[in-house]
Amino acid sequence: MKIPYGGDYNPEQWPKEVWDDDHRLFDEAHIDTLTVGVFTWGLTQPGPDVYDFSVLDAIIERATASGRRICLATGTGAHPAWMARAYPSVTRTDFEGRKHRFGQRHNSCPSSPDFRRFSAEVAGRIAHRYAGHPAIVAWHVGNEYGGACYCDLCAAGFRDWLRSRYGSLSALNDAWYTTFWSHTFTGWDEIEPPSALTEHWRGPDHTAFQGITLDYLRFMSDAMLTNFRDEKAAIRRSDPDTPVTTNFMGLYRPIDYHRWAADLDLVSWDNYPPDDRSAARMALAHDLMRGLKGGQPFWLMEQTPSVTACRDVNPLKRPGVMRLWSWQAVAHGADAVLFFQMRAGRGASEKYHGAVIGHAGRSDTRVFREVAALGAELAVLGPMTLGARTPARVALLFDWDSWWALEISDGPSRLVRYLDVVIAYHRALWQLGADLDVIPVTAPLDGYDVVVAPALHMVKNGLADRLAAVASGGGTVVATFLSGRVDENDNAFLSDVPGPLAALLGVRVDEQDAREESYVNPVTMNGTTFESRLLFELVLPRGAEVVGTYGADFYAGTAAVTRNTYGDGHAWYVGAGLSPEGVTHVIREVLARHGLLGPCADLPDVETAVRVTPDGERLLFVLNHGTSPVDLPDACAGTDLLSGHLVRVLGPNGVALYRDPARTPSTGGGTPARR
Description:
This protein has 675 residues and is an alpha/beta fold. The chain is 29% helix and 19% strand. It starts with a strand and ends in a 16-residue tail after the last strand.
C-alpha cells in the first residue's frame, strides 16, 4: 500500500488508440489510481430506458489490465440533454426567477422527482455492474455539488423542510421575526423561497429577512445532501463496504460541509487556490476538510499539476510548487494525491486547463517530469503516512451558520467578511507552527488547550458553556469582534453584547464604529502599535484586563483588546479588525502560555506540521514557501526521509520529512502546557 497517486481521467473524450500511450506514460509517472466516469451519464444512459456500459467497461478493463486502482464515479455531475428535453423539471430556476434549459453543469434541480429517480437509478445500475471489482477502491458520487434552485418544486420542498424544523407556523413566525414589515404567515403555502423576486435586492446577500434566507441556505444544502444520500443508498444495495465520497471544494460558502460529514465514508476535496500566494489559505482548507470527520485523513481528489483555466488570469505553478503544495496536503492529512486532469481535453471550457499529459502526449515537459518525480517520492515513502493523524492541542472553530448570518446582515459592515477574519487568525496559528484542528462548533472541546473562535457571530447548542469549561480548566479561549450577537435563528440576544459569551470574556460592547477600508485606528499592545481597520468595537471591561487600546477618535485610550481570567485559564476578546501583525501578536502570547509555539515560529515562510502514525510514530514535515534558502534551527533539521540526506538548509519550495524528531515546542516563556 501507498498514497494513491493519479487523478481524473476521461478517455471517453478521445480515440482508443490514445489510451495505450496514456497508460505507458502513467507507468512512467508512477500513476496508480484513476478517477473515471465523472461525466459519463450521457454515454452510460443515452435514453430514459437505455443503458450502455460499453465505454465504461473498456475504460475499467484497460485500467485494470495496467494494475491501477479505480475511483469509480456515478457520472451524475451533469444530466444528459434528453433528460432536460423530456423531463423539464430537472433543470433549475435561478435566483432571478429564470427557468433554465439544458446546458453547462450544476444544472439539476435537487428537488426534482425525475432527477432524483434517474440519478439514483444510474448509480444503482453502475454499482450492480461493478460491485466487487478488485480494482475499485472508492465510489465517487456526483461532482462538486453547489449552486441553488428557486423553482416551484424547491418551494414545496422548502415548506416541507420548514414544517419538520419548526412544527408550527407560530414557531416559524417567532423564529423569523415576522411581526416586522407585516410578514406574519398564516398558511404554509404563503411562504416563498427568498430570491430577487421576493425578499432580496442587490443580490443574494441583501435580504429583508435574514432568518428566511438563512433557512433557505440550510434547506438547499440539505436538499443536495439528499441527492447524495439517494445515490449512496443505491450503491449500498450492491456494495456494502467500499468507501463512498464526493469531492468538496474546501472553503465553499453555499454548502455546509459539516452537515454532510457523517454521510461520507471519506472526505475528499478539490484544491484550486485563487492565486499562487495562498499557502496559508490552503492550509486552512486542508485543516477544515480533515476536521469534518474528527481528524480522519482525507483525499486530495483534484489539484492542477500546472495551471487552472476558469479565471480571468491563471498563474502557472512555478518549478517545485506542485511538489510543495502536494506535500503540504499530505502534511495536513491527505491520504491521496490526485490531479485534474490526467490528459488535456481537446475542446470545450477546460481545454487549456493544466494536465499531467498535454495535447501532444509528451513525457519531456517540465510538468510531466515534476509529476513523475513526485510519484517516485511517494513510491519510496510507501505506507508511512497512511492513517496518520494530527496531534492538535489547538482548535479553530468554523461555522457555516455564522458565515451565512454575518454576510447577509445589514450592518454593522458589509466590508467585514467572515472568511477574511477566519483566515487572519488561522494564518497566525499556521505561521507560528501550531498543530491545530479546524472543527465545527458542535465538536467536543475538552481535548484542546487553546480554542480560537473568529467572528463567532452565532452562538448555539450550548457552545458558551463548553467554551467556558475550556478556560475554567486552564485553557485559553480567543474571540473577536462580532461574536455572540445572534441565536440560531439570527435574532439578536436580548442582553449585553457579547450575549452568552459576556461572563467568559468579561466585557460589554455597547457600540461599534464601522469605517471604510482606508480608515485606520491604531491599537497599542505591550508598547507596540498595530493598525486596525473596518470595525472598531467600543469595549467596556467588566472584569477583563485591558491589553490593547485605541489610539484615535473619541474612543482613543479605551479598550480594543482584553484578557479575562476565568477559572484557571484566560479568555481574550479582540474588538478591533487588527492587521495580520496585530493578530499574530495576540496569538503568539496565547500559544507561548501553553508552550505551543512551533520550532520554526520565527521563520515567516517556513511551515511545520506533525502527523502521528497509527503505531505512534511522529513525523515532522518542514516546508519552505519562500523564494530563498532558509537556515533551519536544530529542531527542524535532520535526515530527510525523502532524500536520505541531512538537511540543515531548506531551499526555495523545499520539503523535508523527518522520523521521530523528538520535537519540543518552543515555550517562549509562560506556563507549561495544560495537557
